[in-house]
């Protein structure tokens, strides 16, 4: 059997992402949008601050009247502005966040004045420059200006900014529907009842857990036995899914039935095999059904191969469907705390521990070893044919937390 040559990772990711149009837009409560991606640019519905505000507790005086003494004529508290106007020789008590009274242009800190009933004189420093303790109208944003770009991840700061900008609802893409299917005759559904010839099904739960770092509507099927009928039936039971992930049966063995099952089910193969280690046999297929596209990722069964391909393909795909501006994981540059050997022709991702300053590759790199995956917090990116690298050499790593995007 002649196999297609494995594709470079970036080409394969670009090909997959080209299949993924953002899902239809819905409007949700600002607080409910946490963790999703903004589906259209957001413009402010108000100006912030809406007036000049005091940034400190103290006394507002006229801009050119910094020497004192002054007579206190009233108060402006947050939410309770002073109604009158201020002229030379007078001051208004102000609190942090209060609107500056008309006619004032400087705030003197309460620590810098001495007060005797309604009389006030300077005992410390006058502000320099005079407007030092003032937040000018529009400092943060102005009405109708864009405050959040389309495709931005909506985290705590964006939730607050959207509210501050006068929005109650935000446009986001609807949640991707994901089904993850474990397949293989050797898989035991119950890890407590696993015969010696079996292995507990764990990839599906792992992939689902990884995907759930994103807002998804996800469920799991299986384990499904290694027959064309069983795999096809599981695909058929995933009719509502935007994305179907299978794990196992992606390689070239006689029992590797995912490709034939996809064909029998009416899906067409987009690509198969990527030049990465682990994860080479990953396949991508699509099925058009009732005007809707389903994307199928066939992940290799070796647990770490499943993890690495879910990290580099499933997560970017879900982000693209969610309308994210940045879909693929970012890298961080750090230094090796131990040497690594020269790499072969496949770009390799080494399980490793990073302490924020340097990275230590783990000894056990077999693609079946979950123990070393569990002990790592990054993957070291070793380019194809990279020469041996020494302690202290720079390397690029992928952070495993949150699927690689902060
Ligand atoms: N002659 C060749 N053999 C293999 C090649 C090749 O190019 N030529 N590629 C190897 C590579 S690389 C990989 S990766 C594996 C992937 O194979 P499959 O995707 O067909 O995976 P399986 O054979 O079904 O399983 C491999 C391994 O993983 C365990 N597994 C599978 N599913 C699960 C699950 N859901 N939970 C836990 N563990 C699972 C399975 O028991 C096997 O031990 O192929 C190489 N072979
Ligand atoms: O790609 Mo396989 O994933 O080398 O073990």
Automatic annotation (TrEMBL):
Domain of life where this protein originates: Bacteria
Family per record: Belongs to the MoeA family.
Organism in which the protein naturally occurs: Novosphingobium soli
Catalytic activity: adenylyl-molybdopterin + molybdate = Mo-molybdopterin + AMP + H(+)
Protein name: Molybdopterin molybdenumtransferase
Pfam families found in the cross-reference section: MoCF_biosynth, MoeA_C, MoeA_N
Domain MoaB/Mog span(s) in chain numbering: 179-320
SMART domains named among the record's database cross-references: MoCF_biosynth (SM00852)
Keywords: Magnesium, Metal-binding, Molybdenum, Molybdenum cofactor biosynthesis, Transferase
Function: Catalyzes the insertion of molybdate into adenylated molybdopterin with the concomitant release of AMP.
Cofactor names: Mg(2+)
Known pathway: Cofactor biosynthesis; molybdopterin biosynthesis
Catalytic activity, EC: 2.10.1.1
């Amino acid at each position: 059997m002649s196999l297609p040559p494995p594709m470079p990772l970036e080409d394969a990711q670009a090909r997959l992402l080209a299949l993924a149009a953002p899902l239809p837009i819905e409007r949700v409560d600002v607080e409910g949008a946490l963790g999703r991606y903004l589906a259209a640019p957001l413009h402010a519905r108000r100006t912030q601050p809406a007036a000049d505000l005091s940034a400190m507790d103290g006394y507002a005086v006229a801009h050119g009247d910094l020497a004192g003494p002054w007579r206190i004529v009233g108060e402006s508290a947050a939410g309770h502005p002073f109604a009158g106007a201020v002229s030379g020789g007078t001051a208004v008590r102000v609190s942090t966040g209060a609107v500056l009274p008309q006619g004032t242009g400087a705030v003197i800190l309460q620590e810098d004045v001495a007060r005797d009933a309604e009389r006030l004189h300077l005992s410390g420093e006058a502000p320099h420059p005079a407007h030092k303790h003032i937040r000018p109208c529009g400092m943060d944003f102005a009405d109708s200006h864009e405050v959040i770009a389309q495709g931005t991840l909506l985290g705590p700061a964006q939730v607050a900014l959207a509210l501050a900008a006068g929005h109650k609802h935000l446009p986001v893409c609807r949640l991707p529907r994901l089904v993850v299917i474990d397949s293989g005759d050797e898989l035991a559904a119950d890890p407590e009842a696993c015969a010696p010839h079996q292995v507990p099904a764990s990839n599906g739960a792992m992939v689902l857990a990884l995907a759930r770092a994103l807002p998804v509507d996800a469920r799991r099927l299986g384990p499904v036995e290694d027959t064309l009928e069983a795999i096809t039936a599981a695909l058929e039971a995933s009719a509502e899914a935007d994305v179907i992930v299978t794990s196992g049966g992606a390689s070239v063995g006689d029992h590797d039935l995912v490709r034939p099952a996809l064909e029998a089910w009416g899906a067409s193969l987009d690509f198969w095999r990527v030049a990465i280690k682990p994860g080479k046999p990953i396949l991508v297929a699509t099925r058009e059904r009732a005007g809707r596209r389903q994307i199928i990722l066939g992940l290799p069964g070796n647990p770490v191969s499943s993890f690495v391909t879910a990290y580099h393909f499933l997560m970017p795909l879900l982000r693209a469907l969610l309308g994210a501006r940045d879909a693929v994981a970012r890298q961080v540059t750090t230094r090796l705390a131990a040497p690594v050997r020269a790499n072969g022709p496949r770009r390799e991702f080494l399980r490793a521990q990073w302490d924020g300053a340097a990275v230590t590759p783990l000894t056990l790199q077999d693609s079946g070893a979950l123990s070393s995956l569990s002990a790592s917090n990054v993957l070291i990116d070793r380019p194809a044919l990279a020469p041996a690298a020494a302690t202290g050499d720079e390397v690029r790593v992928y952070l495993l937390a949150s699927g690689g995007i902060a």
